[in-house]
Amino acid sequence: MRETQNDGLMWALVKERPEEGLWMKRVPTPKVGPNDVKIKIHKTAICGTDVHIYQWNDWAQHTIPIGLTAGHEYVGEVVETGEAVRGFKPGHLVSGEGHITCGKCRNCLEGHKENCKDAKGVGVNRNGAFAEYLVIPSCNVWPCNPAIPEEMYAIFDPFGNATHAALSYDSLGEDVLITGAGPIGCMAAAIVKFSGARNVVVTDFNAYRLELAGKLGATRVVNLKEEKLTDVMKEIGMTEGFDVGLEMSGAQAGLSEMIHNMKHGGKIALLGLQRADAAVDLETVIFNGLNIRGIYGRKVWDTWYKMSTMLQAGLDISPVITHHFDIRDYEKGFEAMISGQSGKVILDWSRVNG
After folding, report:
1. Per DSSP, what are the bridge partners of residue 38?
2. Where would I find the Alcohol dehydrogenase-like N-terminal domain in this sequence (predicted)?
3. Exposed site from 38, 70, 171, 172, fewest CB < 10 Å?
4. Which domain holds residue 70?
5. Largest alpha-carbon pair distance within the chain?
6. In this structure, are 278 and 173 located in the same domain?
7. Dihedral over Cα of 101, 184, 217, 178: its sign
8. Does residue 4 lie within any of the structural domains?
9. Are 266 and 310 in a shared domain?
């Protein structure tokens, strides 16, 4: 890459062609509107959504426009603000909510922005944060507390998914089942343990990520290739099933096993995205009185506040960050994510022009 050029362009990771990969290109630097904030990106993290875009799977082919700048997990500093913006100035360290909401629908007006029917995703429906600069509305900008390490803010988006799901039900003294030991499942394990759960059982087939879940708070991990969940429940003294379930895998088998191992009246939060034709045993849901809640994104700004205060109160999710790469080696970062032998992967943008 060449040194910075004053040509109105910046480096960005772009979905330039309808095939596997992302390409580092120079694209127009975004303009700042009256209510916008321009952020110089310091660090980004790779999300599973970014992997879908990179691999160009069926979802991406039907969702992502060619030419889009990807990325929505980031931290950076304010370098410019619109004339109507108050509360942010150049030099402020910030992150931001990745769902740009309409502000006009019933849910937005009631303060439930996470349920906006017309939300647009940064790095999905509009250009994202895998770039030198990102411009978003000031109402989507979150001020970073300097007492919290900067790279933690680069993963506040997925940490927020985990927090929204994990805090959707009271876990104090409860037995919690988490299906799926991806980074969000691992962070959810840390949160429910921090919130006072008794047993935190995490299931998966990936030994690497199960080990990571153990580091982050799971009291028992279950590799379903080697053990049966029902045997583990007996081993730890459970007799009536799990009180709370957090489905993070998106696998039909994971959801089915959860439904059949909940106590009567148990509570399930669904974050993992199931196939449209996934079969669900509604008879068991009904006769066992299960409560199932869909989880999307983060509560704005409730979840962000909880994330910040939990970290300040001693919650440690730092082990979930397992890899760091210079942005110029972004392909290695995606390789690590795709391998399944990683937690969160951080990309450092400080030397993009080096």
Report:
1. 80, 135
2. 33-143
3. 172
4. 9-159+299-348
5. 67
6. yes
7. positive
8. no
9. no
From 49, 81, 163, 303, active-site residue: 49
Q: Give yes or no: residues 274 and 184 share one domain.
A: yes
Helix axes of 48-55 and 330-339: crossing angle, nearest 10 degrees: 100
Q: Are 81 and 133 contained in the same domain?
A: yes
How far apart CA 13 and CA 28 sit, in angstroms, is: 12
Domain boundary among 294, 311, 340: 294
SS (H, E, C) 218-272: CCEEEECCCCCHHHHHHHCCCCCCEEEEEECCCCHHHHHHHHCCEEEEEEEEECC
Task: Give the separation between CA 79 and CA 90, rounded to whole angstroms.
Answer: 4
Q: Please, are residues 4 and 26 in contact by the beta-carbon 8 Å criterion?
A: no
- Looking at residue 93, which CATH number applies to its domain? 3.90.180.10
112 catalytically annotated: no
In the set 42, 44, 52, 81, the catalytic residue is: 52
pTM (2 d.p.): 0.96
Question: Are residues 277 and 257 both part of a single domain?
Answer: yes
- Residue 222 in any domain: the answer is yes
Tell me whether residue 164 is in a domain.
no
Same domain? For 208 and 328 the reply is no
pLDDT in tens, the chain (354 residues): 334 456 899 999 999 999 999 999 999 999 999 999 999 999 999 999 999 999 999 999 999 999 999 999 999 999 999 999 999 999 999 999 999 999 999 999 999 999 999 999 999 999 999 999 999 999 999 999 999 999 999 999 999 999 999 999 999 999 999 999 999 999 999 999 999 999 999 999 999 999 999 999 999 999 999 999 999 999 999 999 999 999 999 999 999 999 999 999 999 999 999 999 999 999 999 999 999 999 999 999 999 999 999 999 999 999 999 999 999 999 999 999 999 999 999 999 999 998
Q: Are residues 219 and 273 in the same domain?
A: yes
Which burial class, exposed, middle or buried, applies to 137 when counting CB atoms under 10 A from its CB (0-12, 13-18, 19+)?
middle
Give residues with Cβ within 8 angstroms of 305, minimum separation 6.
Answer: none
52 is catalytic: yes
52 in a structural domain? yes
Backbone angles phi, psi at 266, to 5 degrees: -65, 160
Q: Are residues 38 and 153 in the same domain?
A: yes
